[in-house]
Every structure is written in structure tokens, then in C-alpha cells.
Amino acid sequence: ITDGRLKLNFGTKVKACDLDAMRVIVDTGDRISEKNSFDLIVGCDGVNSQVRSAIEEAFPAFESSKEQLPGEFKVIRLDSVPPKVDPMSVSLILPKKGSSGAFVEPTGDDGSCCILFSGRGDTPILSETKNRTAVV
User: Fold this and answer.
1) Nearest to residue 8, comparing CAs of 33, 40, 46?
2) Dihedral sign, CA of 80, 84, 89, 91?
3) Beta bridge partners of 42
């Protein structure tokens, strides 16, 4: 998605990030390419983040840690965003009661999305649902 000022790249894996050179190397699945001269990079590249590693290397005072979080997580992928959810933004869905929640995130220009469910072990959606249509 691009509007001339901002370019979002879905389905892209960060392979390396050099903050001094303002350079990032990404894998789009089809090819590995180098992107130069960014003004801002947002590190949403997962628990083993290349962006976080680059920040730790460039700024020794920056500290981070990995911790096992309590609860369970389940990710499903859908061909389309569920009804009543904005297909252009990340949405947080919270129940009226209980300890579960979900993020709905668009994953491409084709209208697809993924849903990240989170909760404790007593959350039925995490322990009982095996059918993706049951959660739509």
C-alpha cells in the first residue's frame, strides 16, 4: 500500500537492518531486495526482530529481553476481513467478560487478514475451536 508518502509492505521479512546506513534488506518471498534511505522504520518483525537487534547494536544503552508470556495464543488466516471490521486497520476485539481478546490485522492488498486470539487456558476459543469458520 502506498500513498506517495508512506509505503507498507505486507508479507515481507526483514533479513538485515543497518541504522547507520539507513538500509534494510527484505525478503518479499519472490526476491531479496535492499531498501535505502528510510526516514522511519517500525520494527514489527517478530520476537527474533532484526530491527531490535540493529537498535541494540547501534545503541548499547537500549536493552530488551524475551520472556515467556502466560496464556495461550492462536492465529488464524482468513481470505477476507470479518463483517463490521475495518479492512484497512488493525482492530482490537475485547469480550464483554472473560480473559480473551483478539487482534484482526489486514495482511495484504487482496482483503485477507489474520486474527490473533489471546487468553488464558480457560478460554474456550483457544482450547476447543479447531474450525476457522466457527470464529468468524
Assistant:
1) 40
2) negative
3) none
Q: Which residues pair with 78 in a beta bridge?
A: 113
* Joined grid coordinates for residue 49: 526482530
Query: Using alpha carbons only, what angle is made at residue 6 by residues 80 and 28, rounded to the nearest 5 degrees?
Result: 60
**Residuewise pLDDT in 10s, the chain (136 residues):** 455 677 777 777 888 888 888 888 888 888 888 776 777 777 777 777 888 888 888 888 988 887 776 777 788 889 998 888 888 889 998 888 877 888 999 887 788 899 988 887 665 555 555 554 444 4
Q: Could you count the other beta carbons within 10 Å of the beta carbon of residue 70?
A: 7
HSE-CB for 3 with a 13 A CA cutoff: 2
